[in-house]
From TrEMBL, chain A:
<keyword id="KW-0472">Membrane</keyword>
<keyword id="KW-0968">Cytoplasmic vesicle</keyword>
<dbReference type="InterPro" id="IPR017107">
    <property type="entry name" value="AP1_complex_gsu"/>
</dbReference>
<dbReference type="InterPro" id="IPR016024">
    <property type="entry name" value="ARM-type_fold"/>
</dbReference>
<dbReference type="InterPro" id="IPR008152">
    <property type="entry name" value="Clathrin_a/b/g-adaptin_app_Ig"/>
</dbReference>
<dbReference type="Pfam" id="PF02883">
    <property type="entry name" value="Alpha_adaptinC2"/>
</dbReference>
<dbReference type="InterPro" id="IPR013041">
    <property type="entry name" value="Clathrin_app_Ig-like_sf"/>
</dbReference>
<dbReference type="Pfam" id="PF01602">
    <property type="entry name" value="Adaptin_N"/>
</dbReference>
<comment type="function">
    <text>Subunit of clathrin-associated adaptor protein complex 1 that plays a role in protein sorting at the trans-Golgi network and early endosomes (TGN/EE). The AP complexes mediate both the recruitment of clathrin to membranes and the recognition of sorting signals within the cytosolic tails of transmembrane cargo molecules.</text>
</comment>
Automatic annotation (TrEMBL), chain B:
<keyword id="KW-0472">Membrane</keyword>
<dbReference type="Pfam" id="PF01217">
    <property type="entry name" value="Clat_adaptor_s"/>
</dbReference>
<keyword id="KW-0653">Protein transport</keyword>
<comment type="similarity">
    <text>Belongs to the adaptor complexes small subunit family.</text>
</comment>
<dbReference type="GO" id="GO:0005737">
    <property type="term" value="C:cytoplasm"/>
</dbReference>
<feature type="domain" description="AP complex mu/sigma subunit">
    <location>
        <begin position="16"/>
        <end position="155"/>
    </location>
</feature>
<dbReference type="InterPro" id="IPR011012">
    <property type="entry name" value="Longin-like_dom_sf"/>
</dbReference>
<dbReference type="GO" id="GO:0006886">
    <property type="term" value="P:intracellular protein transport"/>
</dbReference>
<dbReference type="InterPro" id="IPR016635">
    <property type="entry name" value="AP_complex_ssu"/>
</dbReference>
Length: 873, 156
């Protein structure tokens, strides 16, 4: 051995790397070696180059950067000796890629070597070119390669052929130059030349239509003969694999015949005999034979219809499928997926076996089989297949449940023959793999349930039973508590019993237990808890006898660590408090039927939210026109929570809730945020709103809007209350009370001033505070007198004080002069404003303001928006 | 239309996309890529594949689907041979190819082992060069594959 080749230092390096115990140690060794190699490169000793590059290849293989050695490759390639060239080209292929500039420098060396007198050097250059050449190099060197396809030594011809496949792939325009040379290769006897020649023809056919036509016309028969010859050839030890002569060549030939036969009946006809022969005569007890059979089946399925051959192919696949070798079963499943396109019936016959494969312990086989099963499903077999899959879901590995449940859901959704079956199957999936089910799937289930009015009772009872057993399946719990909230009365009264049901005895308290369980379980997530709270609110109306207990559960959530839950508990509690005095039960009316079409559109994500929200009609609401929006609102909370984790959830529930609040509120639901005045939906649930006062303002606005959009008198009838006077002073219930009280139509109430409209702090900064007090002149409910008091919080005097205000179009504002334009330290001045609200009862007051003054001679400007006017002004 | 076909032909479809030899501990001992991946991509890919393949047992099939690759692998003593191919490649043929590769190396090294490949990395690559070019099989005769290598050994 040459001393350079076996260079002890290379061996030393490998040994020391092997001896490393940790990755850090290895990095240390490699770093030191790289430093040595750099130093050695700088010394530029030609004798070290070979060894340096060999080391670099090793380091590169370990996954460390070696770019600094790239130029060394070029130097080695340019050196005259064969060993240097050989390692140089190897380094070139391993360390460089076609995108690197360095590669351009090598084109000239390659050109010289392609014309070298030593054919081994020519071989090296061809190999390198074939592996890494860029489009530019391909153009430059194509003539050399084309010439080498005719070279006297077959070992050069085969490399030139494969090099050409790379060239025509890089520069498809060059394809026609190679057609003749390629067809001449097909006549060769040397296997290496044949296999590469066939590969080149295959490549040309996929790139160039003329080439395809040419080979189809001129070469089909020759290729068939070649295939027949090797199939029938006598034993050739050099190429024999398990009794088959060169299975690799078989496979390449079958691949090329596939391209030639595809879409051409004549060519397909020609190859029928040989394909039949390969399909029937090939030994199938060894892998090599099966590889050939597998390729043959694929070719039979791709060429033009020759039905007798296809029967043969399907039979082979059937045999494969029942083989004990997992590899063979895997490829059978793979191929059956392609076979389904032309012979569904034949594949259906293997359904039972395929279903068995879904349960295979091998993940690769399971995955393939599951894909195949989903293609096998049709209207006729969906029930049986789904049953099989669901049965398996119960016992499958945890890590397979996600894939499996997703497939079952998509099958059930796509082929469901009737709603009750759909609901049944979905409940089973949710029970077994609820934690893997995606949001859009259970959302869809709720939409379907909502639409199946005759199944409401059945569904809620089924869910109740399921959730008792599978309480750890989050999505099952969500659907169950939603249904119990909506249809709890049907659950306890056994309403709408179907013949197939056994009557169950569920007390109101049992139903509440389920919801309580969901809200108190520590691993329930926010969405589930929020949905449970809404369900409780609804149940407190459905089950008046235990409303006290329900209230207690709600009250407990005031101590929740989740802000959203806290706030919601407080709000809901206020509603429940008013329960006996206000005819509010329409507030927790059952959800209107959810529109499936809108949901599906939304699920597909193709419509902007606001459009379909507006399009949702409210006519389907059974009673209490004005109540619908409110119901929606209360439910919307769960939506907004879900908006955080998944955007589709947000879209969906807005839809699910069928919000019909008129333009302003619908808009706000869809695009929360930008318009302060339109934040109604967000505000009423106080989501992302810091000020509870602001909340109130928006609530009244919302209620008013709802009333107007439908029927004002109806709205007021439904919502307004006799409003006992003491309520006005109940601080804890203030917010909610205002909400309801504001709608009171009683004129006497509006005529009174003072206590009905508590003063507000309209603005406060570090230096200035503004308070508003309100009074209503009798006889004109639209008009409000506001007295503004400006208080100087700073130790300095403000001079040239001026207060300016702006209001939206529906308001008119009249400003009286201020009591003074100088605001002494800690003193105050007042100013009267008169606001006329043309939308009184529909919209509440809102105002922008600007205050200017001079402080120590300097101009100061403060601005703000006042949103916290009491409702009803 | 021809342009479309060209585009399609250019997207992958190169048969073998990489060949890896990995020991039982999951350390790469030879890596030959026929498409360009950055160092980071290679490390990540090798790590993922090795984890997947090494976790499987002998009874399970030799194919693993990973990203857009299909990995055909086979274990010989302490060494895993893994070949990444396109989706429409004949998996059984690749398995046969791995066997041919091992037989060829056996013929040269005499019962090839991890150390043979480590200490003769360039020679293992030369053999691979004679067998595969640009992701396609060049030669299937062991004698033809080895003759240039033996010739070189004799020359020195």
């Amino acid at each position: 051995m040459n001393s350079i080749f076996s260079g002890t230092r290379l061996r030393d390096m490998i040994r020391s790397i092997r001896a490393c115990k940790t990755a850090a140690e290895e990095r240390g060794v490699v770093r030191k070696e790289c430093a040595d190699i750099r130093a050695s490169i700088n010394e530029n000793d030609p004798h070290d180059r070979h060894r340096n590059l060999a080391k670099l290849m090793f380091i590169h293989m370990l996954g460390y950067p070696t770019h600094f050695g790239q130029m060394e490759c070029l130097k080695l390639i340019a050196s005259p000796g064969f060993p240097e060239k050989r390692i140089g080209y190897l380094g070139l292929m391993l360390l460089l890629d076609e995108r690197q500039e360095v590669l351009m420098l090598v084109t000239n060396s390659l050109k010289q070597d392609l014309n070298h007198t030593n054919q081994y050097v020519v071989g090296l250059a061809l190999c390198a070119l074939g592996n890494i050449c860029s489009a530019e190099m391909a153009r430059d060197l194509a003539p050399e390669v084309e010439r080498l396809i005719q070279f006297r030594d077959p070992n050069i011809r085969k490399k030139a052929a494969l090099c050409s496949t790379r060239i025509v792939r890089k520069v498809p325009d060059l394809a026609e130059n190679f057609i003749n040379a390629a067809s001449s290769l097909l006549k060769e006897k040397h296997h290496g030349v044949l296999i590469t020649g066939v590969q080149l023809c295959y490549e040309l056919c996929t790139i160039n239509d003329e080439a395809l036509e040419y080979f189809r016309k001129k070469c089909t028969e020759g290729l068939i003969k070649t295939l027949r010859d090797i199939t029938n050839s006598a034993y050739q030890p050099e190429y024999d694999v398990a009794g088959i002569t060169d299975p690799f060549l078989h496979i390449r030939l079958l691949k090329l015949l596939r391209v030639l036969g595809h879409g051409d009946a004549d060519a397909s006809d020609l190859m029928t005999d040989i394909l039949a022969q390969v399909a029937t005569k090939t030994e199938s007890n060894k892998n090599a034979g099966n590889a050939v059979l597998y390729e043959c089946v694929e070719t039979i399925m791709a060429i033009e219809d020759t039905s007798s051959l296809r029967v043969l192919a399907i039979n082979i696949l059937g045999r494969f499928l029942s083989n004990r070798d997992n590899n063979i079963r895997y490829v059978a499943l793979n191929m059956l997926m392609k076979a389904i396109a032309f012979d569904d019936q034949a594949v259906q016959r293997h359904r039972v076996t395929i279903l068995e494969c879904v349960k295979d312990p091998d993940a690769s086989i399971r995955k393939r089989a599951l894909e195949l099963v989903s293609l096998l499903v049709n209207e006729n077999n969906v029930k049986q297949l789904t049953k099989e899959l669901i049965d398996y879901l119960e016992i499958s590995d945890e890590d397979f449940k996600e894939d499996l449940s997703a497939k079952i859901c998509s099958i059930v959704e796509k082929f469901s023959p009737e709603k009750i079956w759909y609901i049944d199957q979905m409940l089973k999936v949710l029970s077994e793999a609820g934690k893997f089910v995606k949001d859009d799937v259970w959302h869809a289930l709720i939409v379907v349930i909502s639409n199946a009015s005759e199944l409401h009772g059945y569904t809620v009872r089924a869910l109740y039973k399921a959730v008792l057993t599978y309480s750890e399946q989050e999505t099952l719990v969500r659907v169950a508590i939603w249904c119990i909230g909506e249809y709890g009365d049907l659950l306890v009264n056994n309403v709408g019993m179907l013949g197939i049901e056994d009557p169950i005895t569920v007390t109101e308290s049992d139903a509440v237990d389920v919801v309580e369980d969901a809200i108190t379980r520590h691993n329930s997530d926010m969405t589930t808890k929020a949905m449970a709270l809404v369900a409780l609110l609804k149940l407190s109306s459905r089950f008046p006898s235990i409303s006290e207990r329900i209230k207690d559960i709600i009250v407990k959530q005031k101590g929740s660590l989740l802000l959203e839950m806290q706030q919601r508990a407080i709000e809901f509690n206020s509603i429940v408090d008013r329960h006996k005095n206000i005819r509010w039960s329409s507030l927790v009316e059952r959800m209107p039927v959810l529109d499936e079409a809108t949901f599906n559109v939304r699920r597909a994500g193709s419509l902007p939210a606001s459009v379909s929200t507006m399009a949702k009609p409210s006519v389907s609401i059974p009673n209490g026109v004005a109540a619908a929006p409110l119901v929606d609102l209360l439910d919307l909370g769960s939506d907004d929570i879900m908006a955080a984790p998944s955007s589709s959830g947000a879209d969906f529930l807005q839809d699910l809730l069928g919000v019909d609040l008129g333009s302003s509120s619908a808009q706000s639901g869809a695009t929360p945020g930008p318009k302060a005045g339109a934040d109604l939906l967000m505000d009423i649930l106080s989501i992302g709103t810091p000020s509870p006062a602001q909340n109130n303002t928006s609530s009244i606005d919302l209620l008013s809007t709802a009333g107007i959009n439908n029927n004002p008198s109806n709205a007021l009838d439904t919502l307004s209350s006799p409003a006992p006077p003491h309520i006005a002073t109940t601080a804890s219930a203030g917010g909610m009370f205002d909400l309801l009280d504001g709608l009171s139509p009683s004129p006497s109430k509006e005529a009174t001033n003072g206590p009905a409209y508590p003063p507000i702090v309209a603005y406060e900064s570090s230096t200035l505070k503004i308070e508003f007090t309100f009074s209503k002149p009798s006889g004109n409910p639209q008009e409000t007198n506001v007295q503004a008091t400006f208080i100087n919080l700073s130790p300095n005097t403000f001079t040239d004080f001026i207060f300016q205000a702006a209001v939206p179009k529906f308001l008119q504002l009249h400003l009286d002069p201020a009591s003074s334009n100088t605001l002494p330290a800690s003193g105050n001045i007042t100013q009267n404003l008169r606001v006329t609200n043309s939308q009184h009862g529909k919209k509440s007051l809102v105002m922008r303001m600007r205050i200017g003054y001079k402080l120590n001679g300097k101009d100061v400007l403060e601005e703000g928006q006042i949103n916290n006017f009491p409702r009803g002004l | 239309r021809s342009e479309k076909r060209t585009q399609k032909a250019l997207e992958g479809k190169m048969g073998i996309r990489f060949i890896l030899m990995v020991n039982k501990q999951g350390q790469t001992r030879l890596a030959q890529y026929y498409e360009w991946l950055t160092l980071e991509q290679r490390r990540a890919l090798e790590g993922e594949i090795v984890r997947k393949c090494l976790a499987r047992n002998d009874q399970q099939c030799s194919f693993v689907e990973h990203r857009n690759y299909k990995i055909v692998y086979r274990r010989y003593a302490s060494l895993f041979f893994m070949v990444g191919v396109d989706d429409d490649e004949n998996e059984l043929a690749i398995l046969e190819f791995i066997h041919l590769l091992v037989e060829t190396m056996d013929k040269h090294f005499g019962n090839v082992c991890e150390l043979d490949i480590m200490f003769h990395l360039e020679k293992a690559h030369f053999m691979l060069e004679e067998m595969v070019m640009n992701g396609c099989i060049v030669e299937t005769s062991k004698a033809n594959i080895l003759s240039p290598i033996q010739l070189m050994d004799k020359a020195h």
